[in-house]
Amino acid sequence: HVNGERLWQSLMELAQLGATVKGGVCRLALTDLDRQARDLFVRWCEEAGCTVTVDGVGNIFARRPGRNAALAPVMTGSHIDTQPTGGKFDGCFGVLAGVEVLRTLNDLGIQTEAPLEVVVWTNEEGSRFAPCMMGSGVFAEKFTLEETLAKRDAEGISVGEALNAIGYAGPRTVSGHAVGAYFEAHIEQGPILEDQGKTIGVVLGALGQKWFDLTLKGVEAHAGPTPMHLRKDALVGAAAVVAAVNRVALEHQPHACGTVGCLQAYPGSRNVIPGEVRMTLDFRHLQPERLDSMIEAVRGVIEATCAKHGLSFELTPTADFPPLYFDQGCIEAVRGAAAGLGLSHMDIVSGAGHDAIFLAELGPAGMIFVPCEGGISHNEIENAAPTDLAAGCAVLLRAMLAASVA
Amino acid sequence: HVNGERLWQSLMELAQLGATVKGGVCRLALTDLDRQARDLFVRWCEEAGCTVTVDGVGNIFARRPGRNAALAPVMTGSHIDTQPTGGKFDGCFGVLAGVEVLRTLNDLGIQTEAPLEVVVWTNEEGSRFAPCMMGSGVFAEKFTLEETLAKRDAEGISVGEALNAIGYAGPRTVSGHAVGAYFEAHIEQGPILEDQGKTIGVVLGALGQKWFDLTLKGVEAHAGPTPMHLRKDALVGAAAVVAAVNRVALEHQPHACGTVGCLQAYPGSRNVIPGEVRMTLDFRHLQPERLDSMIEAVRGVIEATCAKHGLSFELTPTADFPPLYFDQGCIEAVRGAAAGLGLSHMDIVSGAGHDAIFLAELGPAGMIFVPCEGGISHNEIENAAPTDLAAGCAVLLRAMLAASVA
Ligand SMILES: NC(=O)NCCC(=O)O
Ligand SMILES: NC(=O)NCCC(=O)O
After folding, report:
1. C-alpha distances in Å from residue A263, one per residue of A259, A272, B230, B302
2. Which one of A69, A288, A297, B403 is least enclosed by Cβ atoms within 10 Å?
3. How far is the CA of B322 from the centre of ligand 2 (A)?
4. Atom 4 of ligand 1 has which residue's CA nearest to it?
């Protein structure tokens, strides 16, 4: 089977590029560190006998020919950009599991029927350039190349400029490609597998996401001489909204999340009643009606709270991804591979967005999760066990082999 | 009586120094604009026949001799520094009402028994240099001169350096002065007088204040894959604290305030559960036991919330002023002056800190409030009616005259 030691060594070698003192990785999309990581991936794939091409948004495709060149490729991949305080495994595991699949097939002298492709998708994290899952989104025609190349980072550098600067604006066309099947291995980024003592998560689908910006406006006034009953305190209103987002998510279980990630009170002076609060709302659910029901419940609280405290509000949508169910055949391929390898496994739903979600628009897609320590991700202390990573890679190999002969 | 037109003209002339486009004033303590305002005050007082001295922390004393030089002076004053987005009246009204008292006495050829002093206290606002009420605090020996001169602004400039730069580090000793009586006229900075349709607030005392910094720590994690029941969301905890501060203040009426002025969630990313929240708590009450009871009630909520959500917390005191009751004689002097002038008046409690609170440590002190439009202060739109300001000044004149012959 796969060489878990080799997979681990590659992960550790890649993690050198942008290594942080706290043991994490800071390798933002389309920086020179990203270029170095891409160069390393390209070298490893060429050494494994692949043909490497790069498309107009910087996605890198390493192709291992099959017996039948007319078949659409069986693909795998993920991303090698990281959060500013990211870990070694988020994304990189999926890419290097793909590389390990290539190496294992070479070791075993196996030729597949369909060609295989291992892909590095550009800017999955969305940290430097929004939105996230940018490369796979362009590949799946969710975003146009033109609008995407024009997106700018906080310094005003565009995606197009950054791609040219690192030499990864490639000639391959970005869209119109057939996908035989797509599998993506990823750390769970949550605590369920660890909690349940399972090695493999058979990913059934992913939660739908709706994000909003919410601004509450009251009246800034002095914290001493302004009587409580005459205040229009935007933060008191915001606190009711934070509580409601949490409560409504608990009431919409299972597969419901509600998070306020950003909240700032203005003007932000100890003895001034906040006249304005800006916050973000992130709702996730597996059922579209339940997702909307969460949002309606919170909207009701926002309206009632604003009426009670004399506030006005503005609620602006910033992201909208519907819930996604992966292809039944791919789900069964992953489950079958785990069972065949004697690995403990369970069905699971992804709470996070992944490139596989966009790939599912183009062909049958599925995902394989492995546990991460304490369920912690997007954090420099992110960790995963070498045996679990090897197990996930072995499942990926089996699933891809099954798809490539089908 | 006093010349309301002249008082208004002086207020408008002073408001030119640091005037903002929104009609407010930005004249931070010990800046060159503050120097210009001080120079104008000094000129006006010298023109009114006063002797002007400056002490080591920059407090300016304009003295009008009385018949009996051995008597401790009857003083009035306030401040001419402003908030960064401040108004024309907060502080300046008290100082210029004092100047108008001098001018009126000159017009009427009245000599008082005790000397009179009009004082500009350095840095009441505390915006550039903390703490607030700095000059009066040094005068009342609440703070030492040495520690005060060493306080630095955000740019690292010390109070001592700033005083020297504007030429207002004076030779007069900062402490040990006798105070015959102290009266301070001020806009209310709250909505009660306007709401009740009264011209004069007879200030009985000021709320005690206890301020805290509160940090809540949970665990930063991904907003999608982390199930609701396993989260340690610091912001959900903070929301419960904000709600409790508000509720507890409502339950401790009358004369109770509870405000969270600053709140920030970290790391502050849309799809990351906040692992840390830093916030400020401002509690005010007229009764010390009720002030402590508010704090104990909120502390109970903090403890219960942290236990419920798996958070830790740190609660650090940052300010502690006990409630203050002004001198009964001064209160009656203000009430009697208002009644004698036929002005509608009511007893009121100051929700804000004022220089008079420190002066009350040194001698009998009292305050006179006049309404401000909508109760709004610490805001560029702060406004007050010329007739109300003239009325407050007339009350100040009567109260000072009564004290100076007593
Ligand atoms: N995998 C991942 O972290 N994606 C970012 C988008 C999300 O918040 O789900
Ligand atoms: N008058 C005034 O605004 N003082 C500042 C201190 C306080 O918050 O009460």
Report:
1. 11, 17, 21, 19
2. A69
3. 14
4. A353
